[in-house]
Design a protein that fits this description.
Blueprint: H1 2-9, H2 13-34, H3 39-57, E1 60-62, E2 66-68, H4 70-80, H5 94-114, H6 121-142, E3 146-147, E4 153-154, H7 162-192, H8 196-228
Antiparallel strand pairs: 1-2, 3-4
Helix pairs in contact: 2-5, 2-6, 3-4, 3-5, 4-5, 4-6, 4-8, 5-6, 6-7, 7-8
């Protein structure tokens, strides 16, 4: 434990996040090449990809010389939690979510590079990992129905009511927010050359304020697509 704490305090976390996000994106890209999206799912993925890219363009500055893209983050997690779009139920995999998030984020970062502003790879890498984590919690359980016996089927997320699904989405958003705060603390510790635990406390404070609004937006987008046929 002492070794792990020392590594965190020496601020090696930012590089770890970048490497992890790159690895996850490569694996997801290979999976997508081997199992392409259906035409219907591709159109939905493109729409969310554009949404993520626009959100990345519209970054905002945070206290402490940090940046975030709340609209892009909300769009990415909404795609991870997307169930049905009207009567259509697109088949979305974890790999699809990761690829759309990564590509959308990188495309949205291009205007910042052209304007001689930071690329923001740490923000994009964090989003890829956080959205991938949320997709891991949601997607496998939305598309499958497990049965303990023929007489007592247990319906999982795909068979739930809108209210029940909203509760599950909120729980996943909270878990993703905590994960994001832990990753953001690694980056903050790297940037400020500060110990990890104080950085984590600071990120948790930010999560309570800005994160709650972003999280609510993510859930509303995913549910709106189901109800309003967006």
């Amino acid at each position: 434990m002492t070794t792990i704490s020392r590594a965190l305090d020496e601020s090696r976390g930012a590089l770890l996040i970048l490497v992890a996000a790159l690895g996850v994106s490569v694996v997801a890209g290979v999976s997508l090449l081997n199992h392409p999206m259906s035409p219907g799912t591709t159109g939905i993925a493109l729409a969310f990809g554009v949404f993520i890219a626009l959100g990345e363009v519209l970054r905002i500055n945070l206290p402490g010389d940090g940046e975030t893209a709340p609209i892009g983050a909300a769009a990415a997690l909404a795609f991870a939690l997307l169930g049905s779009v009207g009567d259509q139920k697109p088949t979305i995999t974890i790999g699809d979510v990761v690829v759309v998030t990564a590509v959308g984020g990188l495309l949205g970062a291009v205007p910042h590079v052209v304007a001689d502003r930071p690329l923001g790879l740490d923000v994009i890498a964090r989003r890829v990992l956080v959205v991938g984590f949320a997709a891991l919690l949601f997607r496998p359980f939305y598309t499958r129905v497990y049965e303990y016996s023929q007489h007592h089927p247990v319906a999982v997320l795909g068979q739930m009511t809108t209210k029940g699904l909203a509760v599950v989405m909120v729980a996943i958003v909270l878990a993703a927010g905590l994960f994001d705060a832990a990753l953001a603390a690694l980056v903050r510790a790297d940037r400020d050359r500060a110990p990890y635990l104080p950085s984590l406390r600071s990120e948790m404070s930010s999560l309570i304020s800005l994160g709650s609004a972003i999280g609510a937006t993510r859930v509303l987008i995913a549910l709106a697509a189901r109800v309003m046929q967006l």
